[in-house]
Here is the input.
Amino acid sequence: MTLANRPTILTGDRTTGPLHLGHYIGSLRTRVQMQHEATQFLLLADTQALTDNVGRHQKVTENVLEVALDYLAVGIDPALTTILIQSQVPELAELSQYLLNLVTVARLERNPTIKEEIRLRGFERDIPAGFLTYPVSQAADITAFKATHVPVGDDQLPMIEQTNELVRKFNNTVEREVLVECEAVLSSVTRLPGIDGKAKMSKSLGNAITLGATPDEITRAVNNMYTDPQHLRVSDPGRVEGNVVFAFLDAFEPDVAKVDELKAHYRRGGLGDSVVKRVLNERLQTLIEPIRARRSEYEADRAEVLAILKRGTEHAREVAAATLADVKGALGLSYFAQ
Here is the structure.
């Protein structure tokens, strides 16, 4: 594949806390793989994180470096992936302003992802304007780098749909092809449940296993995982569906035959939860140990991590500025262009 026809990927996460296994299975593995096959931009979305963290801005800014450490620890290579800080690329905010003119408040309120996030946060009608326009900000992030592919969970598909709506609306308005539509890249496991089984994994809900978790933290989390409440005795047949331990085994155990055998044994009875949890615990310990070790190495030289972010952000600004120049030119706003 030549550089000319390589896909361009835009991906990232809100910097509200450390990354966890839900991120890893949802898109981190895809990002590590795709950096060898595509031109990849990885965005630390601190500006978007501020939309619902008023008064908690210090937590957001502190987590920029923490999330960067997580990315580097799982194998993101700054020589292959451009890692940037959203707030330090002002071109993204300016592009958002132009795109906002192409969407109505009613359309933003109909976005299923935003509706669900509003419900979870209890905003009702008291919605911060920045949060409501989150889809437009995300569209600016994607289109600024002319991304053709965006790794997301299935809950983010409405955001990709809205991005492409805005691209088509802008191109139709200026009567030329300036911005590029994108495709969602879904992992084989689009969403990982929390250890409580009640919601998707989230650090804020206290049901996540972070990528930097200690061995003891991993063991405690696995032991606390929701299984089958009707599986009271080892001899009882158990349900695999809705059982968080088996959901994690499906996601992280590469030996599919081994998992299938455990499921069959559990369903017919004679297999205790403690045995299945022990299998999962061993798998997660093996997975996280090298990630935790690499994170410690990077953490010992935070100045170099900041330098990586600075270099990536500077490169990202150059790319975003070129797109913004095209947008302003199409809108007739390049008054002083030579």
